[in-house]
Design goal:
This protein is mostly beta strands. The protein has a single domain, classed as Pnp Oxidase, Chain A, CATH 2.30.110.20. It is 6% helix and 48% strand. The chain has 1 helix and 14 strands; from the N terminus they run ββββββββαββββββ. The protein has one helix at residues 66-75; strands at 2-7, 23-25, 27-29, 32-33, 36-37, 47-48, 52-53, 56-61, 80-89, 95-114, 122-128, 131-136, 149-154, 159-160. Strands 1, 2, 3, 8, 9, 10, 11, 12, 13 and 14 form a 10-stranded antiparallel β-sheet that branches. Strands 4-7 form a two-stranded antiparallel ribbon. Strand 10 (95-114) and strand 11 form a beta hairpin. The longest helix has 10 residues, at 66-75. It is globular and about 60 Å long.
């Protein structure tokens, strides 16, 4: 499986058909949490808080997008859209979308790098956003794709989108 980032206004080095000039991502993390209070012997009255969304954290090797992400972390304005594509090889070695995270109104909230010895610098980028939509496309045993399952949440409004 490969992970590609499509970030408005920033080009990367990906050459895979359909994902040209996107940014190759090595790992991604994201979480949503809610505090839930539970009383022993009274589980029917559980209460939960509003969801709390983490920033999306992406790790990648240094590439042609590095300077643009560094610049965006310092000077960049909000309003950029991003898509994180998780793809896998399907029939005839064609890439198929497995899951996609769409982020709206992104801000690059942090940029960091580390390097050791003869290795390329390794970068971590964090994205803050106002809306997140997840689209999952499953495949059957014959590798035929089904319709996507989608859900979005508007963090700024606190509503499903």
């Amino acid at each position: 499986m490969a992970i590609y980032l499509e970030f408005e206004g920033i080009e990367g080095d990906v050459t895979a058909v359909g994902y040209e000039q996107q940014v190759k991502i090595d790992s991604a993390s994201f979480s949503v949490t809610r505090a839930v209070s539970m009383e022993t012997g009274n589980m029917s009255n559980r209460e939960s808080s509003k969801p709390s969304f983490s920033e999306v954290s992406l790790a990648k090797a240094a590439d042609s997008s590095s300077a643009a992400f560094f610049k965006s972390s310092i000077l960049g304005a909000s309003g950029k859209n991003a898509k994180i594509h998780f793809v896998q090889t399907g029939d005839n070695d064609q890439l198929k979308e497995f899951i996609t995270y769409e982020l709206e109104n992104c801000i690059v909230s942090s940029f960091s790098f580390e390097a050791a010895g003869d290795d390329l610098p390794y970068e971590t980028i964090s994205l803050s956003y106002s809306k997140c939509t997840i689209s999952y496309t499953g495949h059957d045993l014959a590798n035929k794709g089904g319709g996507p399952s989608r859900f979005g949440y508007d963090v700024s409004a606190g509503t499903a989108a």
